[in-house]
Structure formats: structure tokens, C-alpha cells
């Protein structure tokens, strides 16, 4: 087994050489295109960091380049990479970079099984694996392989030797591995000696095969989106510094009015207990800052919507997917699915005309908190509901390449 001890996974609030994204290939909800959001994100990032865009082919490259030039994007800060892909979530199966003290990079190649919906050797899983091999070859960097299955959104690092993960997710992906064996492998890959195990993520991120959630009316008819991860940590807990953890929170009032909010409060308060008792790699307690969880957002989906069609074919076990004309889907939304990079933070925004003022108030409260937690960085709010209905957010669709 290859020794990787001189390499580490930098914290995401450290400096970046580039941000990777994959250009969208379909809409999760017809008429709710992610392209305007992508253009806004690229426009926000390019003054601060290079953006590397994965496109499927030359025709796609030409089309995307035309769109960006039409939006007056600084193309000197954009590079294109012909990397075949069938979804946008580069955070999860995408390139995982580690560095040594001399800034030499390696890419960690972990196995991927489409969030547990498929096998690691399915066509979709192998497409993601081959994409990373292609990127490593193009960048001319060495790789280190692992048989551990996992996704980038399932791991959160402080850059000093501590990592947060969700036990239910990692155990589902790797049923033949013990916790101790996974910890040894994480340490080999990322140089983390201290792993904090949360128990569960938010209910909206539960795997679809677990069945529909109970809605506000008491009916169990709310489906999670396609490719929900089963509880990724990047929806619930993030480091803003080596010693500070931002943790989602649902109020007692919210929990009293909604079954999903009630379940989320139970899970998040248990995670608070775990983090409050945890220590960092040096034996010091963490500072915990609570971040309001988002108000729930729903959409009806039918055949022809990307989210519906993916659920129809994605898995063959667990609770059967209803072959009905229409289903109600909850968005996987979270303020903690943000991207931090050089000089700027891309923060999810949820209020839009027609939504309650409570949503606008939450947007403002979180914005104020992030200004305090990320001094010296511009905080830019980005509407991302178009991809929340696909099971992820801004953090899920981006991947940093360290400097």
C-alpha cells in the first residue's frame, strides 16, 4: 500500500489555484435551468480564482464559451477540459487534491458507487472514475488509489489533522469496513489523526430508497431528490477556521410545526452534543456557531423532469419508487452548502418574491454571521434552488484545487 504521509488535504478556507465545475447536461426540473446560476457563479469567482470547466465535447465547449463571452466573463481566468460527465456534482466523485509542504499535488482516487444507488463498477460509477484519471493525466500529477468508497461532500477538514464525517453515510458505502479500518485509511489518504463522527445528516438528504418523508399534512408523500447522498456533512457542519465549526440549527418553534423540521432538530441537536464533546487534533474544544437551517421548498415533478426520470431508473431495492404521474419533491437546501475560496464566499440565498418574509430574514441573518466568520472575504449570495432540486448545492457542484 502506497505511503501518502507527507501529503495532506488542505482546509477549504486555504488558498486555491482553481475551482472546478462541470457544465450541466440536463435540468432537474423542466424550466428551472441552472445555466444562469452557473454564469453568476463564474462571474463572481473569476476576479479571485481560475475556474476550470468540465465539458463533454468540443460542441459543448463552443456553446459554453459563447455564453460566457456574452456575459462579459473574463475568459483569461477560465479554462475548459474535455471530461465526459453525466451530472454536475464534481464535489463528490470529482478530483480530490492533496498537497505536501512543497506544494506538490497528488490526486486521491477513491471508489464511487453513485451514493450507494449503484455498484462501484456500474457505467455511471466508472464514468466518474475515468474522469478523474483523465484529469490526473492532463495535469500530469501522480495519483494514490483507495478501495474505500466515498464522496467529497462527506468529509470536512480543518487542515490541521481533524476531519468530520457522518457515520451512517460512510458505513452504508463501506459495509465490510470497520470504523477503525476507515479511520486508518482516511489518515493514510488525507493525514487526519482526529476524526469526529456525526450520526446523521438532514432528512432532506436521506437516500430515496428509505421511502418518502412525512409532510406538514401528516401524509408520507414527500420524496427526496435523485442522487441524495444519505446525509452528507456539507449540508450540516462546516469548518470556518481550524477551531470553529458552523452547525445547522432548527428552532423549537420550527420543529413544532413540521415533521421534517422536527426530525432535523433531533438529528442536529445530537450532532451538537457530539461536536460539543469533541476535541481537535491538539486536544482543544471546538467553537461552535449555529446557523439557521433553511425553510423547506417543494416542487411537483413528472416524467420528463430530470429529477423524476433519474429516480425512475436509479435503484432497484428498498422502498419502490412510485410509478405515478406526479410526485412531490423536497429540495436539499442548506446555508452550509457554501463555497469558500480566495477572497470570496459563495453563500446560498433562498428568498424570492412570493416566499415568506421569514426566508428573507434568515438569508440576512446568515449573511451577517458569515461576514463575522469570514473576515476579509466578500460574501456573495447566490440563488441555487435550480440545483437543490437535484439533491445538492453550491458546494456540491464545485471542487477546489489547492495552490
> For the record, what is the CATH homologous superfamily label?
L-arginine/glycine Amidinotransferase, Chain A
Class computed from helices, strands and strand pairing: alpha/beta
Distance between the termini: 27 Å
CATH names the topology as L-arginine/glycine Amidinotransferase, Chain A
- Number of distinct helices: 10
Secondary structure tally: strands: 20
Describe this structure in words.
29% of the residues lie in helices and 26% in strands. The protein contains 10 helices and 20 strands. It has helices at 35-45, 58-70, 123-139, 167-173, 179-190, 252-257, 259-277, 306-314, 357-373, 385-388; strands at 16-22, 50-55, 78-82, 96-99, 105-111, 142-149, 155-157, 162-166, 194-198, 213-214, 220-223, 237-241, 244-249, 287-292, 298-302, 326-330, 339-341, 344-349, 378-383, 398-402. The strands form 6 sheets. The protein has a 4-stranded mixed sheet with strand order 3-2-1-20. Strand 1 (16-22), helix 1 (35-45) and strand 2 (50-55) form a beta-alpha-beta unit. The two termini are 27 Å apart. The model has no long low-confidence stretch (mean pLDDT 95).
Summarize this, please?
With 403 residues, this protein is an alpha/beta fold.
SSE topology:
Blueprint: E1 16-22, H1 35-45, E2 50-55, H2 58-70, E3 78-82, E4 96-99, E5 105-111, H3 123-139, E6 142-149, E7 155-157, E8 162-166, H4 167-173, H5 179-190, E9 194-198, E10 213-214, E11 220-223, E12 237-241, E13 244-249, H6 252-257, H7 259-277, E14 287-292, E15 298-302, H8 306-314, E16 326-330, E17 339-341, E18 344-349, H9 357-373, E19 378-383, H10 385-388, E20 398-402
Parallel strand pairs: 1-2, 2-3, 5-6, 8-9, 11-16, 13-14, 18-19
Antiparallel strand pairs: 1-20, 4-5, 7-8, 10-11, 12-13, 15-16, 17-18
Amino acid at each position: 500500500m502506497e505511503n501518502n504521509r507527507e501529503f495532506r488535504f488542505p482546509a477549504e478556507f486555504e488558498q486555491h489555484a482553481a475551482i472546478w465545475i462541470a457544465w450541466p447536461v440536463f435540468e432537474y426540473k423542466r424550466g428551472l435551468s441552472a445555466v444562469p446560476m452557473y454564469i453568476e457563479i463564474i462571474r463572481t469567482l473569476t476576479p479571485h480564482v481560475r475556474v476550470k470547466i468540465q465539458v463533454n465535447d468540443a460542441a459543448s465547449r463552443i456553446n459554453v464559451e459563447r455564453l460566457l463571452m456574452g456575459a462579459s466573463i473574463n475568459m483569461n481566468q477560465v479554462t475548459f477540459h474535455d471530461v465526459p460527465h453525466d451530472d454536475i456534482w464534481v464535489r463528490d466523485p470529482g478530483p480530490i487534491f492533496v498537497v505536501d509542504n512543497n506544494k506538490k499535488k497528488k490526486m486521491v482516487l477513491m471508489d464511487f458507487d453513485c451514493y450507494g444507488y449503484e455498484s462501484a463498477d456500474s457505467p455511471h460509477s466508472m464514468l466518474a472514475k475515468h474522469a478523474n484519471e483523465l484529469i490526473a493525466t492532463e495535469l500530469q500529477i501522480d495519483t494514490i488509489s483507495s478501495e474505500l468508497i466515498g464522496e467529497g461532500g462527506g468529509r470536512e477538514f480543518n487542515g490541521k489533522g481533524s476531519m468530520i464525517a457522518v457515520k451512517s453515510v460512510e458505513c452504508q458505502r463501506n459495509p465490510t469496513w470497520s470504523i477503525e479500518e476507515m479511520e486508518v485509511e482516511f489518515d493514510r489518504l488525507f493525514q487526519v489523526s482526529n476524526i469526529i463522527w456525526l450520526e446523521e445528516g438532514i432528512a432532506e438528504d436521506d437516500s430515496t430508497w428509505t421511502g418518502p418523508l412525512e409532510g406538514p399534512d401528516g401524509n408520507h408523500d414527500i420524496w427526496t431528490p435523485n442522487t441524495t447522498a444519505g446525509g452528507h456533512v456539507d449540508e450540516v457542519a462546516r469548518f470556518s477556521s481550524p477551531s470553529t465549526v458552523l452547525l445547522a440549527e432548527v428552532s423549537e418553534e420550527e420543529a413544532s410545526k413540521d415533521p421534517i423540521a422536527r426530525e432535523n432538530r433531533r438529528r442536529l441537536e445530537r450532532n451538537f452534543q457530539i461536536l460539543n464533546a469533541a476535541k481537535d487534533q491538539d486536544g482543544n474544544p471546538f467553537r461552535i456557531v449555529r446557523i439557521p437551517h433553511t425553510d423547506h421548498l417543494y416542487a411537483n415533478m413528472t416524467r420528463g423532469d430530470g429529477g423524476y426520470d433519474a429516480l425512475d431508473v436509479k435503484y432497484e431495492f428498498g422502498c419502490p419508487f412510485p410509478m405515478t404521474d406526479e410526485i412531490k419533491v423536497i429540495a436539499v437546501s442548506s446555508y452550509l452548502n457554501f463555497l469558500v475560496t480566495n477572497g470570496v464566499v459563495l453563500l446560498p440565498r433562498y428568498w424570492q418574491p412570493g416566499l415568506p418574509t421569514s426566508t428573507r430574514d434568515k438569508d440576512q441573518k446568515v449573511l451577517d454571521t458569515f461576514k463575522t466568520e469570514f473576515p476579509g472575504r466578500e460574501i456573495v449570495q447566490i440563488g441555487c434552488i435550480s440545483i437543490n432540486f437535484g439533491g445538492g448545492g453550491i458546494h456540491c457542484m464545485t471542487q477546489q484545487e489547492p495552490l
